Amino acid sequence: MKILIIEDDLSFQEILRKALEQERYIVEVAPNYRTGLIKLSDYTYDCILLDINLPDGNGLSLLRELKAMKKAGSLIIISARDTIEDKVEGLDLGADDYLAKPFHLAELLSRIKSVMRRGNQGGDQFVRYGNVKVNPHTFDVWVADTKIDLSRKEFDTLLYFIQRPTRLVSKTMLAEAIWGDHFDDVDNYDFVYAQIKNLRKRLATCNASIEIVAVYGMGYKLIEN
Amino acid sequence: MKLTTHAIRNLILPLLLIFIAWAAIFYVILSDELIDEVDDQLEVYSEQIIRRFLAGDTLANSVGGSNNTYYMRPISEVEYQHDSGVEYEFKDIYIESRREAEPARVMHTIFEGANDDYWKLTVMTPVYERNEVISTILIAGIILLVVMLLVIIGVFAWVFVRHTQPLYRVLGHLDNYTIGKRQPLHNDTDVTEFQRLNKSVNACINRIEEAYERERRFIGDASHELQTPLAICQNRIELMMEDDTLTEQQMIELAKMQQTMGELIRLNKTLLFLSKIENNQFIEHTTVDINAKLRLQMETLSEVYASKGITANLYEKGQWVLGANDELMSSLVSNLLRNAYLHNHEGGCIDVYITHDALSIANTGDDAALDTTRLFDRFYKAHHNKKYSNGLGLSIVKAICEATGLTIRYSYEGGKHIFTVGTSEQKKR
After folding, report:
1. For a designed S-S bond to B422, which of A125, B109, B333, B358 qualifies (C-beta 3.0 to 4.6 A apart)?
2. Is the pTM of this model over 0.80?
3. Domains and CATH numbers, chain A
């Protein structure tokens, strides 16, 4: 899978490249509008990460050019701008997703997988790991072809983990993702722990081949047994 | 005291002194002139008498038709030598026709007779008529002066008031000036100094407006700039944590760094949010159901804070629906509720009351009232080391209230901290 990163901040570009190459993606980079345009014209990519604030042009214009070229490939906008107006404009112009800095790398990886899965016509709408498959649209969960029922919070938690298998997820990240933006700064994370405990029990009783394990008291990760 | 009053007061005194001095000098000169004239007449009269006497003519009647009188007496040679000669003086003399004493001008002179005899002659003439003339002239003069004084002051006041109008216009403009509205001064005048004043005032206003604009944007701009370096730092730590060769101790350190980075990022986001609220960047309004938001958030919060054993009650005395920005209202409700949970003690309680135009949240917690003067200040924390509290929660609540036309009040009653949000009309009740 080939990914093009169009980002002018070289430090950030380097981090993204490292994270993606760790996931076995092939990565190309472009530090400005001009180079980005050249690369896009000459080659095809499975996914493009586009920063809007480029030194020699607005990333959104590049997006328009890309759509005009009718090239395949999913596009995710990464930007320091966080307003609803910017997000709507980007998505209206044809971007597949919009990520505002700062974001967790795990989040980026999960979104890349998500847009590429959507991009594949007739592709798999399930998220799978081990013998568990989850349909994010119908909220159905199957363990080895047996459908199981989960509470809303349990489902959200499982989905979050299964979209980031083997990645370390901190309690803070979970709180923010599942309970909302303002619950990542409470003074006590017992409620997160309670939720994980519930989910672990369910997975165990259903004989799932995946498991949520605690990591050094810092967080959790989903692994395959 | 007003400028005009000051100017007039300072004008009256010198003018008055000048006029008085003028009147006095005028009187003295006039008086002297008249007396000189009388003295000349007396001199002529005395010469006539002496000539006639020396010629041996019969002298005119002592009482001439003019009320002039004279008398003579012989004096010794010794007296003649020692006499001072011609002398003038004022004296009251008896006038027969008027049957009383009247002021008169008297002249003494000495002369040598035809027979080696010496004589002292005294001639007199009444001056009451002349005195009356002087009085009349003086009174007329004073009246004229007073009228002139009043007219001068009147004209001066009128001119002064008219010419200081531009000054009052400038003052009025400055008094009513609100920063951020950018109202330039309009003050037509052809007085150079006031034109300069206008220019200076406008230049000053421009400087203030620009500084205000820069400062308003500063926090927003700074927070914005911070986002990329913060992201880079956080992501680098994330990458490092994927390294399997790290020891447990190193992982724990990295995890702690992650936590601090998280706090930094949250603080930055909050500052950006606050700056946007204060710059009126949340303009979209919809119909917002406050009751619904309260119910939803209280449900989630009771789950999140389950371990703290807090009892929370919602009393819906009315339905509060208003036109406002949805995101801001969510944040308002969220901040107030989270504070009620966060700053509460174990087993404490929270009472939320909502009516059709007010919301009130009461919670147990600290045993003393909070400092109302600084409560809503940025970064103010009642407990300095309280974690998970960046001190901006109430500043956000206040900014949202101001942007939405709501009021927020704090009171400490019955051991509970009570925050009440209402509409501005309520405050007048």
Report:
1. B358
2. no
3. 2-119 (3.40.50.2300), 127-224 (1.10.10.10)
